[in-house]
Amino acid sequence: MIMDVKEIRKYLPHRYPFLLVDRVIEINLNDSIVAYKNVTVNEPFFTGHFPDHPVMPGVLIIEAMAQAAGILGFKTMDKTPEDGSIYYFVGSDKARFKRPVVPGDRLQLEAKIITEKRGIWKFECKATVDGELACSATIMCADRKL
């Protein structure tokens, strides 16, 4: 199932400039998702984060992975924010950064469900550029009522 940004906006409350998922290219409910973020030189964070050598901040790479995981969680639960539910990013473990992400990169985001217990979801996530690992982390999200 492919989702464009219009469809993604139904499942994430984020909006520009903080919507960090451009397209979902594969989703397997109850299992995994593959999405991507096109990183352009026009991203607002590049003006202040190493402006002479622009690098995407690591915390935003983790946020992008969490947003992809959030889409997977919402789709798996068959819920949207309009249903009065919100999906909070509540933690990350084992975060590792292996290469910088720079303007022109297509950041592929992958998340796989590890567990879900009482509304707390745990995902194994990775972000790659051209097949090369940029970041990996275990990410936790919580489904809560608004």
TrEMBL record:
Instruction: Tell where it localizes.
Output: Cytoplasm
Do you know which CDD domains this protein is assigned to? FabZ
Say which species the protein is native to.
Answer: Marinomonas arenicola
Gene Ontology MF annotations:
(3R)-hydroxyacyl-[acyl-carrier-protein] dehydratase activity
Task: Please give the catalytic activity noted in the UniProt record.
Answer: a (3R)-hydroxyacyl-[ACP] = a (2E)-enoyl-[ACP] + H2O
Which lineage ranks, top first, belong to the organism behind this chain? Answer: Bacteria, Pseudomonadati, Pseudomonadota, Gammaproteobacteria, Oceanospirillales
- List the active-site residues: H49
InterPro entries noted in UniProt: FabA_FabZ, FabZ, HotDog_dom_sf
Q: Kindly provide the name given to this protein in its UniProt entry.
A: 3-hydroxyacyl-[acyl-carrier-protein] dehydratase FabZ
Tell me yes or no: is Acetylation among this UniProt entry's keywords. Answer: no
Family per record? Belongs to the thioester dehydratase family. FabZ subfamily.
Q: HAMAP family per the record?
A: FabZ (MF_00406)
**Keywords, ordered alphabetically:** Cytoplasm, Lipid A biosynthesis, Lipid biosynthesis, Lipid metabolism, Lyase
* Superkingdom as given in the UniProt entry: Bacteria
- What is the role of this chain? Involved in unsaturated fatty acids biosynthesis. Catalyzes the dehydration of short chain beta-hydroxyacyl-ACPs and long chain saturated and unsaturated beta-hydroxyacyl-ACPs.
